[in-house]
Predict the structure.
Amino acid sequence: MRPDFDPDTARCNSHADMARGLVELLPPLEQVDAILVAYGIPEMAATAPAFVMNTLLPSATMAFTVSDQGIVAPHSALRLAGEFAKSSGFRRILLVVLEVATLPCDTEPPPETVPSRDSAVAVLLEEAEGGTGTAVRQRTGVNSRTLPEALRDELEVLLDGRDPAAVVCGATVAPESVPDRFPVRAAAREFPGTGTWAALGALERATREDDRPVVLVDYEPLLGYLCLARMERPVSSASAEVIP
């Protein structure tokens, strides 16, 4: 625990409260088969947000949390969602990304990975009909020097000759690292964990007639993880900033 942190006076949102607030913003969900919650920064108390969301959305037969991977935890959750869809026949999976700005532990993460405010994002994943589906690429052992080349290589594999509607770079990825032939957008830097995922909703509204995929790129510098997610259109998402 940080010596200057007082749990009795700190104004902290719990993951459970953030999950409840996010569900209230979503349109009615008649059927959700599974819920995956991802976060990089732990909260002070274990409030089991996946359990809370499962209580609010009881149709889900599976709900769990992915963490301990920094700001790229949502990519691992998305990859798991794809595996569950293949093996369990799940048709609708809700991916929830939570990000808190309060750091109760005495750690020194890279400053660009610490958010300025709490935020939450939900993305509803549905079974693709006749499309190529969502895909995730994850590479380990990447440092700031090798990041541009690794990103170019992973984009080539992930897109396989397709042109994306946009490549969305997270807070720790420089837009100039993306090859010039791809349209690039920068996610909000104040939200390193949720920024790329929140950008999905804005892109969907801005490019509604464009059915090309969107690629999300995040890099966790502390762990050396580079992750890319190819999201097929249309995309259904909701996001919220939470002020403690």
Summary: The first strand starts at residue 34 and ends at 39. The mean pLDDT is 86.
